[in-house]
């Protein structure tokens, strides 16, 4: 009886599937295809921009050469303007002299000192004015009165106020960079959406947290623009100071070339100032670019 029951139970068990044998060691795995290194292609828009800019500069050089070669004289007189070939010949000649690098180094040192002071004070004053009506009402009259005064007009008073010519030049350059930074910072703080401030307040954020995480990020685009504009104006102000009261610097180099009726060096000084100003502004934009990454995420 027990034998028959055990037989019936064995019949009710499900059939087991045969175990799959593992692949033998002799079976060779198919090699994975090797990934080919992908070459990074330049952005078509960037390439188009570079090509367009290069063609524009080439066209400008051709027009400059034609005007100087033909002594163009219609409202603008190119009779005494040197050709591009003469200017670049003089420029490469100055590259072999030590005094040329001294002029450039002195101007860049003055820009670095005066612009750094203007950045610290300008951003600080702009932020305070943007968040305090009393501070805005108290400081704005001074800004509106002093800001329209050109850099050249400051030179006699700056020489009387400061003990050395170097400090007076730095002061004039500082004033040129200060006001664009202050006003753009003030504009950026004023343009902060009030709904964001109220939302942060409703979540229990403190005034310092609101300032650091709402107001300051919202003002960064305007601050960045003010820094770039201030850099350009600082070079203009530096040039004015060096022309009148400097002994070294690229502005003094340009003015000295005019005094000696050296037309090639006048243009060389102008082009060097333009190049240094462009590179300085581009450096400021690259330095502030990481702070504006949130704009791409918002878009």
UniProtKB/TrEMBL annotation:
It is found in: Cell membrane. It holds the Pfam family BPD_transp_1. CDD domains: TM_PBP2 (cd06261). The keyword Phosphoprotein does not apply. It is a multi-pass membrane protein. Gene3D superfamilies: MetI-like. The chain crosses the membrane at residues 46-67, 111-130, 142-162, 168-187, 208-229, 266-284. SUPFAM superfamilies: MetI-like. It comes from the Bacteria. Signal peptide: none annotated. Keywords: Cell membrane, Membrane, Transmembrane, Transmembrane helix, Transport. PROSITE patterns: ABC_TM1 (PS50928). Its main location: membrane. Residues 1-39 are annotated as: Disordered. The keyword DNA damage does not apply. InterPro entries: MetI-like, MetI-like_sf. Belongs to the binding-protein-dependent transport system permease family. This is ABC transporter permease. It comes from Meridianimarinicoccus marinus.
